[in-house]
Amino acid sequence: MIKADLFTCAMFLALLGPAPCVAFAAALGWGVLLCSGCLCLSMGLYQGYIEFAIGLLLLCMLRDCLTRDLRLEKTICQGTQLWFRACCWAAYCMLCR
DSSP letter at 48? Predict the structure, then answer.
């Protein structure tokens, strides 16, 4: 029970992580920078919530696909770009250690 505050902060940052990617999808750099910052802080506190953040990002993409009138190709392109950016950021973090 001592670490409950720590886990709550980690979950809040994991929840806050996908929001900038979805909100700032037009501005390529800012959304990814804010998202990666929140996820790095969340993973620094507790790594177990990364699945929570990935699932939330997938749910946001599914919501956008169902509510907006987006074509399937555009949705797949956006998902591929997000995946590529996440992989580049992870590679950068691993190389800078």
Answer: G
Reported as half-sphere exposure (CB side, CA atoms, 13 A), residue 88 has a value of: 9
Give the whole-angstrom CA distance, residue 4 versus residue 45: 11
Q: Which residue has the tokens 């959304």?
A: 31
Q: How far apart (Å, rounded) are the C-alpha atoms in residues 75 and 27?
A: 17
Q: How far apart are CA 8 and CA 32, in angstroms?
A: 23
Distance CA 57, CA 19 (A): 8
55-76 pLDDT, tens digit per residue, is: 887 787 777 777 877 677 777 7
User: 27: alpha, beta or left, given left = phi > 0 and alpha = psi -120 to 50?
Assistant: beta
